[in-house]
Amino acid sequence: MKKHLVIIGLISVVLIGNLSGCVGPEVIDYFNGEYPINAQTIVSVSNINGQIEITGWDGDNVSVYAVKKSTFGEEELHKANISVTQTGNHLEIITKYTGQKLIQTRVDYTIKVPYNTSIASLTTSNGGIQISKVKGDISATSSNGAIIIEDVNGIVSATTSNGHIEIRNTSGISDLRTSNAAITTEIQSIEDDINIETSNGAVTVYINPLMNATLEMTTSNAKVKLQGISLNISLLEDTHVIGTLGINSLKIDIHTSNANIYLNKLQT
After folding, report:
1. What is the mean pLDDT of the chain?
2. CA distances in angstroms from 247 to 27, 55, 175, 210, 218, listed in the order given
3. ∠ CA(83), CA(84), CA(90), 5° rounding?
4. What are the Cα distances from residue 10, in Å, to 17, 22, 73, 208, 212?
5. Distance between CA atoms of 101 and 83, rounded to whole angstroms?
6. Long-range contacts, stretch 74-81, CB < 8 angstroms, 24+ apart
7. Start-end of H helices in 57-149
8. Contacts of 263 (CB under 8 A, 6+ apart)
9. Which pLDDT tens digit goes with each residue over 37-85?
């Protein structure tokens, strides 16, 4: 593991910035690590304040690169510690903060894992999550950040706020929730009843026409629009549509407000 520290600004300003409670120049610390895994390894990431980007690559190890940033001095920067632990077939990457409740350090992760490595969960706040070219039934949770997931062999779920959600080319989805932002998702399959929910943002769904599911779609001050997909309709109103694909089976609830819902045929 290699680390080096960069302090931006004049020495006199840095001294002021290091005083407790004072905002000063940005202090940056870098983290690099590589960790051997096997085909059964499951990876999870828990961050506290910042983004997570994880993607598959053709290397043999998990590569973890992180950038820690703070404008409250070097002492505050070092209150955010990065822990990487391997227990059996589990690799956990965790940001631990030892300061007060008000987190004054940001940590941004760029992680590469061997193709077909299983990802279990990714959690952060005040930052986005991007996932691609991996496998696993993944739970992604953030706040005030977008979640983008693509090319995943598994069932994915996503929860955030004030950030959009995009899901493309996955085996299937579970619940998707955000607020004040749009949701765009492909639905290849589902394994249980699911909810797709936002507010003040459009919902655009591309659904496998060969699925068996009942869909209920509701909005306000906008419309539900079917585009290139045929449902067995039991309720048809501008703001409320209920219909079935195939046989009456699992339920998909789609809800937003002040924006349209678009249901489209997924091209396979």
Report:
1. 90
2. 59, 37, 21, 10, 21
3. 135
4. 10, 15, 13, 58, 64
5. 19
6. 74/5, 74/7, 74/18, 74/27, 75/18, 75/20, 76/104, 76/105, 77/27, 77/28, 77/29, 77/105, 78/29, 79/104, 79/105, 80/48, 80/49, 80/105, 80/107
7. 74-77
8. 205, 207, 215, 217, 224, 225, 226, 227, 229, 231, 254
9. 999 999 999 998 999 999 999 999 999 999 999 888 888 888 889 999 9
CA angle 240, 200, 158 (to 5 degrees): 90
Pairing state of beta strands 203-207 and 183-187?
parallel
CA-to-CA distance for 230 and 127, rounded, in angstroms? 38
Identify residue 224 by its one-letter amino acid code.
V
Say yes or no to pLDDT of 14 above 90.
no
CA gap 215, 48 in Å, rounded:
36
As a whole number of angstroms, the distance between CA 86 and CA 90 comes to 6
Size of the chain, expressed as the number of residues it contains: 268
Cβ–Cβ < 8 Å for 150, 161: no
Q: Is the pLDDT of residue 10 over 90?
A: no
Please determine, for residue 113, whether its predicted confidence score (pLDDT) is greater than 60.
yes
Token output for 167: 């899901």
Q: 126 to each of 108, 116, 146, 157, 159, how far by Cα in Å?
A: 11, 28, 9, 18, 13
